[in-house]
Fold this protein.
Amino acid sequence: MKQIRFDAAVEDGLNVYRYLPGTDLPVEQHWPGLYEEWPDAPTPWTEYAVNNNNTEEIAVYLGLIWRLTEGLARYGVATYYRDAAAEILGQEPTLVDWEYEVDAAVLEPVSRDHGFVPGRSCVPNRSAPIAWHLEHAAQAGLFSITTPRDLVGLLQATLPDASAEVTLFGIEPGPDRFAALRQSLSGPARPTLAGVLRPGDMFVDLAVGVDLDNYDSITIAAHADRAAYLQHLADDYGRRVAEYEAKADGLPDIPAFLAAVRDLTGIGA
């Protein structure tokens, strides 16, 4: 059984946990159908952002992140791809000045973590109105993430690049707390995680290596000690991966695959 292992540290008063598998991804045995032609939706891509490059490990990451932030109001950033995320999610983003950055081309866990950097968003070639996109190109966008499907869509917006990155803030529900989060990510002063997060909050950054020499990682930060729950989740996903791999070769079609991946995520339908 393959184990997901987080390295734990205390940084600036926060408990920080990093998972950086390198080339040793959590799922080794893949469904052969990932490498065949797919019919129209639903497909592995439409349902779970899984394809024949970034494979079933994506479902593990998204499931773990969703369960880790259970009970909190979730707000996400699609790094650099704010407007693509807006189109996929059908939402207008709340504009902020800062976003988190992890360099997926670096293998050392701390060195790849750049913290908060000035926001920037890709300007679509055929935007209408183009002036708005140019005016706000130096801002990121916060999106409300209320369902697992939203989290999938947030990641889908970023995966066409050499590496993909999404950030999720789990905070106390309510307009006042959201307003405080927005304010902490706005203005000229560079935020820190310790300044953004309040007791009970959860921060998660997922980086996905798409092209060669880019690598996946999950970075988690909270005031509370989450080591025991992370170990519980890691043990559970080790078991789920083993069960999935035992049946992957025999899955006859896309519906069977999607059912198996739903079990792999650990978050149901």
In short: Strands lie at 7-11, 14-19, 73-78, 94-96, 98-102, 113-118, 140-144, 163-171, 202-209, 217-222. The mean pLDDT is 94.
